[in-house]
């Protein structure tokens, strides 16, 4: 008998990815999966790829249904987690994939999100120094954002080491379409997206606050771009150097023991395709020959390390399981 | 200590997929991986997604290197397996992913392939009646072709049940580009493929002989089409009905106990995306309202059930392991 | 001063393509473009690519607005053309891109479409024998369906010449996503479509009736497949041969003088990418070496020859303009 | 009788695009098209989409063949133009699509390209102040690079107006695969590219020198990324502001009279798909709310404004034709 976990908001892309990961996890067992409009449908009809749970019917998202689990994954739209979480007993562990509990400063919340700030939970990025222990001791963990985790892992060690100027960071990051969710919107139609790159929320993306809080950056320009692929984030982080340290060496030292963060051999650059389906982040860094800027490129799968995989990694730590249980280090390519 | 397996021809797409599956397999251990032009390179440079073996160096493809393994996967270009296999002792089990040993009739070989017919090994499609037992008793197994397995599973039970006319079958099947291999060719460039559907080998594809041999079809028209996606095969099989049996019911009965063959609920049609990364085949069937023809649609991942996954499934059977070990039933989507 | 044309339903994909073609047409001038929900918006915001009309505001779709034009293109949802057409004077020429007036037999309409049969207009496929003259003499023309035109051009000459059996035709046709329109639907999201092939309306597509009516086929099985590309239709037509005539020669003779129908040199197969943006259809045919079936492959751009381009071609004929005016013979690739 | 133009290097993507544009140009006539390996092949077999010239046979690239034309487009690999150009009489106008003659400073050439610096021709970017007149007076024009033109148009007016700091510019730019040419290389295979974003030449791209020379930037970090689409460039230019001027207003004023450069309405961001097939560049700019940086996003079609279209625009100017002749302002979408 495995540890019983619930997935609230199982009909979306992050929810579907959680179901896939739970099905393949040696220690977890699906207690219940819930939805809103899709409650009453089988998982087989909502997520045709998740054959393991094909006959499981989605329940309605209600606290009573979820409270029966040992751990609940919340994969709800931003702003909806707080209400559900408030009705779950402290004994039920929660990993929230939404943004509700990530930010410490209510002013940051108000700047980028509608509604009131719900509070702050332990930030679920185990690769940050000391964070793994905090997660292990928590019953409430706020998962990272997808752009955020991909950028923070590229940037935080450089700022911590005094190698990159926290006051001058420029990020341009491309995301696959699954990052925008499964709601039917015209600008996300295949016809509009295939063959096209489209920037959005230029100069004002909500992950900026989260990236600054967790990476130590103080001033950051970020431009997100929607790319014609279903998954993957490629973040280019251009930071002004302080001193002449080799940025690649700093990153390699920081992540030497991390199973999911891979600083590639010199000269080999990350590509999102190589991270597909895995919980890995691939990194490479160099100094720009014209400007001298540090350029770090970071690739991940937005639905795994950027959402469901990160959530399972956090759950593993909270539950005392091996941190890599049920998570792939290897991507699927081509 | 796991069972020691070797991969010959590890630098191609099927080889890379074998490496990924072996890395995640609970019972197998990589003894050696070999290549030709890429011998001497690390797996990390050749397959950036296979992080588990990133520091393993590809050896040269030589029998002495391979003979040390308990089982050898041959992922070589068509026509090159026979020479290597001839130099391996009988005690070393072999699964050949190439076409060399699939066909029984030398005349079929000569009609579709260059060079001489190498011989016939046990046909590695466990879902055919009685075939699982033959595979278990064999030390030499010829893996299926990717179009072949996708089509045969859709067709064989209908012909066996006397429901479809073996003398009048029309197949149109689309394949992702990885089915065409990793050699650099102009017509496989992303620029040429993205946004375009392109038929090839129209009226004369080499899998026709294999499909006929294993499905019982006697006359078959097949049109293969290159589709703008990296993986996946979608086969549409239109067969003249004999009698009025429900084709879906026949398929559902045939595969009721198969872990990897899924006849979808009525009205739900297969899509290749739902099989991505899995060893599953999804099937659906109906009767055409204008012509009365049986139309079966079959979807699979050409690199898994169509190549490396099928090979691991065969190896599992040959080695007395659980048939599903190391293989995913669930796809990765979106 | 050009001939004044109106586009009703200008906010969809066919409407946008009409705007683009009108902007580049030497003889036509845009009188008005109308929409429903988008009325009041500029064309520049609805169709960012149509810079020529960027400041033109979409009017509401009302007969009074349209009646002022010399010719009206109706690019409305199926079933909505009849009501608008009924309120336009006979002196205003109309080309209807919808299905409303294509079918002759009300029973065919009822079998495949909801609502009542609106009537029958001149069928707008000039490459059919004698049809060009009928179109020239008409003030009301029903444009072809996209699957229909691509299939009919491949099939009609073979049936007319007694070379293909009209009672045994199997068609499998893939379409880019723009053929499904611009309404936001989950199954058309980029995340769902990219990397996947998905059949739909298997055994019961509404274009079957239109294809039979115009090609002479009497029994036809058609399977449509949604392909991961924005535009393009690739139809594979497998017909039982009558006699031993070379199907390619029959097609080449039929279209020798047609500017938009291209029978490719022997051995060169059509690809949808080569027709992108053009009003051309590319054809090739062979005899299957196993079954002897005639296999014709036909490629077109569903928004041009399958919709807006065909409409302009019909308009050119109706207005006495050069038939190719404003239409590209060359595609855009890669 | 049109003006007689030649295309040297007609078998590549830029060459094919030139052929398409020439076929649709009201004043130009194709004198000859040449190739290397493909000499002797028909254009119909090399570029199946260019039906207008389907029976034209590619000649061998030899000066004698080209010298007969009024104007020669050189679409040769970088480094090969100089040798051909040297053998053409001054009376034959030349537009070189390659990089050979773009740079003024031999040191810049040596820093980024192999071989010796060939010299400097008039820089073929008519939208730069005063440049149109220089082009009109030249018989030798060096076309812009594709990244270069997309970035320069975004940046030059801001630096010229003293609004952006020339010493601190960060560019991240994504390109479709056709920008990498048509030679068969493994990393350009559809299997490798689809579903993946891949950076390359990070910190050291050869267009940096060209961008600095033409935009006035003095220090520039540029990261190019290969995107999974056949065409299109999306450049994100993040520049440190000098003063508080509205960058959008500066750009709008600079390009008010330009037919091919479109500053979009406030809030509407460029997308590469909207420029497909057109000679247009779409621009938008804002100030980043966290960092205050100016962020300009610029989109173009790399084969049109980034190569063949720009070349035709330059030729039009050199030949005294209307500058927009034969060039589309409207893109093709979706």
UniProtKB/TrEMBL annotation, chains A, B, C, D:
E.C. designation(s): 1.2.1.38
Family per record: Belongs to the NAGSA dehydrogenase family. Type 1 subfamily.
Catalytic activity: N-acetyl-L-glutamate 5-semialdehyde + phosphate + NADP(+) = N-acetyl-L-glutamyl 5-phosphate + NADPH + H(+)
Places the protein is found: Cytoplasm
Gene that encodes the chain: argC
Functional pathway: Amino-acid biosynthesis; L-arginine biosynthesis; N(2)-acetyl-L-ornithine from L-glutamate: step 3/4
InterPro entries in the cross-refs: AGPR (IPR050085), AGPR_dimerisation_dom (IPR058924), AGPR_type-1 (IPR000706), NAD(P)-bd_dom_sf (IPR036291), Semialdehyde_DH_NAD-bd (IPR000534)
UniProt name for this protein: N-acetyl-gamma-glutamyl-phosphate reductase
Keywords, alphabetical: Amino-acid biosynthesis, Arginine biosynthesis, Cytoplasm, NADP, Oxidoreductase
PANTHER family xrefs: N-ACETYL-GAMMA-GLUTAMYL-PHOSPHATE REDUCTASE, CHLOROPLASTIC-RELATED (PTHR32338:SF10), N-ACETYL-GAMMA-GLUTAMYL-PHOSPHATE REDUCTASE, CHLOROPLASTIC-RELATED-RELATED (PTHR32338)
């Amino acid at each position: 008998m495995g540890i019983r976990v619930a997935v609230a908001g199982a009909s979306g892309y992050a929810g579907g990815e959680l179901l896939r990961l739970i099905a393949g996890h040696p220690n977890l067992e699906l207690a219940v999966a819930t939805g809103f409009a899709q409650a009453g449908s089988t998982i087989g009809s909502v997520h045709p790829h998740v054959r393991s749970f094909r006959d499981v019917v989605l329940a309605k998202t209600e606290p009573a249904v979820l409270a029966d689990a040992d751990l609940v994954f919340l994969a709800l739209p931003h702003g909806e987690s707080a209400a559900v979480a408030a009705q779950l007993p402290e004994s039920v562990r929660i990993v929230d994939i939404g943004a509700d509990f990530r930010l410490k400063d209510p002013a940051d919340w108000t700047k980028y999100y509608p509604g009131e700030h719900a509070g702050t939970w332990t930030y679920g990025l185990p690769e940050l120094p000391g964070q793994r222990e905090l997660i292990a001791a928590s019953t409430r963990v706020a998962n990272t954002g997808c752009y955020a985790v991909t950028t923070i892992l590229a940037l935080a060690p450089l700022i911590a080491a005094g190698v990159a100027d926290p006051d001058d960071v420029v990020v341009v990051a491309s995301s696959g379409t699954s990052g925008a969710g499964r709601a039917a919107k015209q600008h996300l139609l295949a016809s509009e997206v295939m063959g096209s790159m489209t920037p959005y929320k230029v100069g004002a993306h909500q992950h900026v606050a989260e990236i600054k809080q967790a990476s130590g950056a103080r001033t950051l320009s970020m431009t997100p771009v929607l790319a014609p692929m279903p998954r993957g984030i490629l973040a280019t982080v251009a930071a002004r150097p302080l001193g002449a340290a080799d940025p690649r060496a700093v990153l390699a030292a920081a992540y030497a023991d991390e199973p999911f963060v891979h600083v590639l051999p010199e000269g080999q650059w990350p590509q999102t395709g190589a991270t597909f389906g895995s919980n890995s982040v691939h990194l490479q860094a160099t100094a720009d020959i014209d400007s001298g800027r540090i350029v770090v490129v970071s690739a991940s799968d937005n639905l795994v390390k950027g959402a469901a995989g990160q959530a399972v990694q956090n759950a593993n730590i909270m539950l005392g399981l091996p941190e890599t249980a049920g998570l792939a280090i290897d991507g699927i390519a081509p």
